[in-house]
Design goal:
Belongs to the ATP-dependent AMP-binding enzyme family. The chain is of the alpha/beta class. It contains 19 helices and 34 strands. Helix 3 packs antiparallel against helix 4 and helix 12 packs across helix 14. The chain binds adenosine-5'-triphosphate and magnesium ion (MG).
């Protein structure tokens, strides 16, 4: 999801509660395994060393804070916000929201009346506190040996220079600036430079096509774009500048002119080898170093827009999600701190690209607000060898690793030796986001990568939610493979049936959110009606997530898949995530995707796409044994009707399976696949079609 935006392998291949700050605790923590898949069960009790520097050592500690956050959100968030720098404090009645379309327009206002600047809080605040020489970014290039270290002081100066350049070309508060960069230090720097001026950044993942980029520039009317001459992803060159040129042409044809392009010189495309538009294009290396290294921040209203970002488009047309400044800042910092047990100076690595919400909240803003040392890796995970990630973990002594299930499965498929070759003793917390993590991948992460020492933090959230919504807190309560467990502070999840009736106790339903939370989406760019319709018209007074979810008797929430993807087999509601997890638990299967198809008797049947492990044959015996695995783990009613061998799965550039395409292929509607341009590898579609089977 954008949320995700992870290094999808197929892309080529605060405050009071912190009383115990600094104390190292060795806690005994029980890890309960509910899903009995694969025979492997996490032992009841594991030794987990963690420094609960947040002061939350148990579920009871959490419950106390959670109650406060929900009963008195204005007070709870106000106390935390006081730890940040504000030019003007918020008004006493700063927390207001209306989530009910019938009683007026949907709106959320938090810290209303307050004025702040998030770049100041990410950088100046820490430098003023004496952290200027602490590493801010530890950058690793695509190729081994390419590295760069930037301190907080250096990043602050560079941000000021870029901000001064932006000012020199006329960028003012409220203007949108497009950013189309590979994962180099200049990417978060460009974001912060915009933020410093109160300009609204729109980061477009540097893998999107010219048309996608043009469409996003037109939608938010950005006339300035920050880009690079090129990029490398594994052994593949990405012709960024050519794509920008093509996008500018497309935009011009539609009446939108890109006035300025600031171009970072990337070694993949040095000067002279890069197409150039005189008057429009400016080399970063010529323009930025000449700028002053200080720049007054623009104090903005808490409710002024901070950035806009398009969703990953797994379910349809991407939406331009708009986030606010104050609420987002406090939400990003607080979730990053508690979910990852993050403290100043911790080495933290989020593998997401800044092109997705995860990269915004947990690569750029969240960790910087917490004064962490951020690892940034430009390349792809398996380049040049399958141990690249583990090599970086060892080299940088990464404490927290935040990544995605798609990547975890790809790494698992390479075998354990690659992991074990490298020292991982620095690791304390392992996080996952983007899609449901199947228990087998969860266990591999926990047992092999984390050597059973590190809590696995399965975070559920969305581009629209801005920050983590449901997630374990490290060491505070037992995790459960595949479950995001409990809601974060201030988040009130509810499960409803399809008529909108709230369901209580252990049950399954559609996940909605009551009340609002600091980093909630404020609107969709240029279309507040669409915002209201998409999220608040389905169920009165509730934010509709679009995800199905189960709550067990411990109160744990487990995402079962998208509501649109729920399959109804002979009256049984079957979550796609569960069938996929059961298939993936089978040794022969690396990844699976299931969709529902019309079935004469059952209403809907289950159609499963299975990607086999390298040494596996698509035999009749394997097919039978995969079906048997689903029968055993879920029940006979969930047994797939069709197994379609797939050389790979169609995924968005953020690594999510595009089931809408798989649904069409399943019913032979090859001409109705729709827009496949946001796919990481569109060629996989033909490859899947060519392996079609008919067994229904
Ligand atoms: P679009 O809304 O355009 O279809 P998208 O929903 O894929 O795109 P994101 O906001 O990146 O865009 O993804 C959010 C979705 O990702 C969630 O609604 C959920 O389906 C899924 N998701 C994210 N994290 C988790 C998780 N930990 N467990 C289960 N599902 C998750
Ligand atoms: Mg979505």
């Amino acid at each position: 999801a954008v949320l995700t935006g992870h290094l999808a392998p197929q892309l080529s291949g605060l405050e009071r509660a912190g009383a115990l700050a600094g104390s190292a605790i060795l806690a005994r923590r029980s890890t309960v395994a509910t899903s009995q898949e694969g025979g492997a069960v996490v032992p009841d009790t594991v030794q987990v060393e963690y420094r609960a520097r947040t002061g939350i050592h148990s579920r009871a500690d959490y419950e106390r804070m959670y109650r406060h956050s929900v009963d008195d959100p204005a007070g709870f968030w106000g106390d935390i916000a006081a730890g940040f720098v504000w030019e003007r404090r918020w008004a006493p009645d700063h927390f207001s929201y209306n989530l009910d379309l019938q009683s007026g327009r949907v709106s959320t206002r938090i810290f209303a009346g307050g004025r702040t600047n998030i770049a100041f809080n990410c950088l100046d605040r820490h430098v003023e506190a004496g952290r200027g020489s602490q590493p801010c970014f530890l950058w690793e290039g695509n190729d081994v040996g390419q590295e760069r270290k930037m301190t907080y002081g250096e990043v602050l100066q560079e941000v000021c220079r870029v901000a001064n350049w932006l000012k020199s070309v006329g960028v003012r508060k409220g203007d949108a600036v497009a950013i189309y960069l590979p994962l180099i230090c200049e990417l978060p720097i460009a974001m912060l430079a915009c933020t410093r001026l109160g300009a609204v950044h729109s980061v477009v993942f540097a893998g999107f096509s010219a048309d996608s980029l043009a469409q996003r520039c037109i939608d938010c009317r950005s006339r300035v774009i920050i880009t690079a001459s090129g990029g490398m992803r594994g052994s593949k060159r990405v012709e960024l500048k050519q794509i920008v040129d093509a996008a500018a042409k497309v935009a011009a044809e539609k009446g939108h002119k890109i006035h300025k392009a600031l171009v970072v010189e990337h070694p993949a495309a040095p000067r002279g080898k890069c197409p150039w538009a005189r008057g429009r294009d400016v080399w970063y290396g010529d323009a930025v170093p000449a700028q002053q290294a200080t720049c007054q921040v623009e104090w903005v209203d808490a409710e002024d827009p901070l950035f806009l970002l398009y969703t990953s488009g797994s379910t349809g047309n991407p939406k331009g999600v708009v986030h606010s400044t104050g609420g987002y800042m406090v939400g990003a910092a607080t979730t990053a701190k508690y979910c990852f047990d993050l403290q100043p100076g911790d080495v933290y690595w989020c593998t997401a690209d800044c092109g997705w919400i995860t990269g915004h909240t947990y690569l750029a803003y969240g960790p910087l607000l917490n004064a962490a040392t951020n690892v940034i890796y430009e390349g792809v995970p398996l380049h040049p060898q399958p141990d690249r990630m583990w090599q970086i973990v060892e080299k940088c002594k990464v404490r927290t690793l935040y990544t995605a299930p798609t990547l975890i499965r790809a790494l698992e498929a390479q075998g354990d030796t690659w992991v074990k070759k490298h020292d991982r003793s620095s690791l304390r917390v392992l996080g996952s986001v983007g899609e449901p993590i199947n228990p087998r991948a969860w266990r591999w992460l926990f047992e092999v990568v984390g050597e059973r020492r590190c809590p696995v933090i399965d975070t559920w959230w969305q581009t629209e939610t801005g920050t983590v919504m449901i997630s374990p807190l490290p060491g505070a309560w037992p995790e459960s493979p595949g479950s995001a467990t409990l809601p974060f502070f201030g988040v009130v999840p509810v499960l409803v049936n399809d008529k909108g009736k709230e369901l209580h106790g252990a049950t399954e339903g559609i996940l909605c959110i009551k009340q609002t939370w600091p980093a909630a989406i404020r609107t969709i760019k240029g279309d507040h009606k669409r915002f209201e319709q998409t999220y608040f018209s389905t169920f009165k007074g509730l934010y509709f997530t679009g995800d199905g979810c189960r709550r067990d008797d411990r109160g744990y929430y487990t995402i079962t898949g998208r509501v649109d993807d729920v399959i109804n087999v002979s009256g049984h509601r079957v979550g796609t995530a569960e069938v996929e997890a059961a298939l993936a638990a089978h040794g022969a299967c690396v990844e699976a995707a299931v969709v529902g198809v019309e079935h004469k008797i059952k209403g809907q049947g289950i159609y499963a796409y299975v990607a086999l492990a390298q040494d596996e044959e698509p035999s009749e015996a394997t097919r039978k044994s995969l079906i048997a695995a689903v029968r055993q783990h879920i029940g006979a009613f969930a047994a797939p009707d069709v197994i379609h061998w797939a050389p790979g799965l169609p995924k968005t550039r953020s690594g999510k399976i595009m089931r809408r395409i798989l649904r069409k292929i399943a019913v032979n509607a090859d001409s109705e696949l729709g827009d496949v341009s946001t796919l990481a590898d569109p060629s996989v579609v033909q490859a899947i079609i060519s392996m079609r089977v008919t067994q229904l």
